[in-house]
Amino acid sequence: MKQEYFVVVVAHSLRGRLRRIHIPHQAVYSILALALLGCFSAFGFVASYARMAWKVAQYNSLSQEADRLRAGYQNLQKVVNQKNDQLASLELNAKEVAMAYGIPQKLEGPADLSAEGKLVPTFAESLEDYNFLRNANLLAMQSHHSLGFQTNSTPNLWPVEGNLTGSFGTRTDPLSGEGSEFHFGVDISAPVGTPVRAAADGVVTFAAMEGGYGRLIQIDHGAGISTRYGHLSKFFVFAGQEVRRGELIGAAGASGRVTAPHLHYEVRNGGTPVNPYRYLVNAAVYHEATHKDFPF
User: Fold this and answer.
1) Which of 35-39, 95-99, 115-119, 228-232 is the most confident on average?
2) What is the CA radius of gyration of the chain?
3) Contact 266, 273 (CB under 8 A)
């Protein structure tokens, strides 16, 4: 039995001669099978590449989302820290008002809670302990700083001559112009080199670079009161030095996180920032050197 085959007739374009080519059926079928296999292989390669590209795009998208969430978490954490400081400041102000006007502290809660017995210590006992510790602190400072030191311990002097350009409390970020932050002090406009003076008698507890504050000086005035002077260009005092009200301690500048030269001024009570404006509103401006009663 003869083998079945296909006949392909080929004609020469110039000579007109015909030529017949015999192609077996098996060869044709083999070529078709190989072509089909090649199509499947190419399709599989394309599908695998597309799947890999989709996974890479998904990974990049998830990575960007993770970065966005991380940045959002950091912003929320910053806001929480600012709100905690603000709450501590408000609580301190509330306590000062309560003590100043003798507002009684009432025990709130279920009636049966009061029946369990009085809470220890009571508000009066806590106030008595506070006064005792404050007096003890004053006596200790008077013993350590004899010869009349701490006669002007209340910050009642403008540390620098200028205008208020930034207030205490929540404000828009001055550098980015977006979001909000809690400003722990006030900003007083002052050209670079303007003399900065101590707002009250005290002891310098810090005089160095401090992050966004730039060159920062902190003075302890006793009784839990301290002041801070930031963004300075020069130091004229050192940590541990005793200073008097109106004494030159530094020069205004633009160190740290600022947009223009000025003095950042803070007042803290027990480490909690309070609004310096209530001290500045009735404060004097330095005009001449304060008499020094130090023995040196």
Assistant:
1) 228-232
2) 40
3) yes
